[in-house]
Write the C-alpha cells for this entry.
Amino acid sequence: MMAWAARCAATTAGLLLLPGIACAEGDPVKGATAFRACPPCHALEPGRHRTGPSLAAIYGRAAGKAESFDRYSKPLAEATFAWTPKLLDAWLANPSELVPGSRMTYLVADGQVRQDLIAYLKALQDGNTEGLAIPRESVLDLKSLGRAGRVGAIRLCRDTFHVTLENGVTLPLWGRNLRFRIDTSALGPAPGAPALLPGGTQGDRFTVIFRDPAEISGFIRTECETK
C-alpha cells in the first residue's frame, strides 16, 4: 500500500477523479475485494469477453468500442466519450442515467466502493499489482472435460432427450430441462465434441454446449426405441 500511495500521489493530476475526491480515497486492495462480484460478467484479460466486455485497459478506451465484443446496446455502441474515472463512477452509480437504453443493470450504490473499484482497475492497468488479488479464470475450458463431460449422441423421443456421453452413460432429460448453447471462444468445446454441463438448484438442469450451430442438427436424432 505504501508503494501504491507514492505512485498515486505522483499521478493524481492524470487520474481525473471526481471533483473533491483525493486519489488516496480509492483503495485498490479493497477494490480487489469488491471486484469479486464482477467476474461472472467481466474478465480482466485483454480480449476475454463474457456477458460484458473485458475491462482490461479500460482507461482512455472509447465507450462501446472494445475490440471483438459484439453485444453492446445501440446507445452505448454509439457513445462518443472515452472512459475516465469520473465517467466510470457515474456509470457504476447508474448506467442507464449515464447512457439511457444501456443494458447493464448492476449498480454500485456506495460511492466509496466505486472509488475502490476505480483505483483497482487503474492499478492493474498501470501494472501496479503489488499486494493485489487477481481473479483467476472462472470460465471452464470445455476442451479439458473428460469422456464423462463430452456428448457422443442425442436422441429425442417425445418430450425426452436421451443424452449419451462418450463414456457410455445415457441421461434421460425432460426437454424443458435441457438447453443448447454455442461457445466459439478459445474456451469452447472442440469441433464435434459438445460438452454437457449440469446446473439447477435440484441438479435436474443441463446444458449442451456446441462449438458451431451447424453441429446441433447432426447430433439430435428424433427416434423412439422399439421394444
Remarks:
- The CA atoms of residues 8 and 30 lie 15 Å apart.
- Residues 1-24 have pLDDT under 50 and may be disordered.
- The beta strands are 151-157, 160-165, 170-174, 178-182, 195-199, 205-210, 220-222.
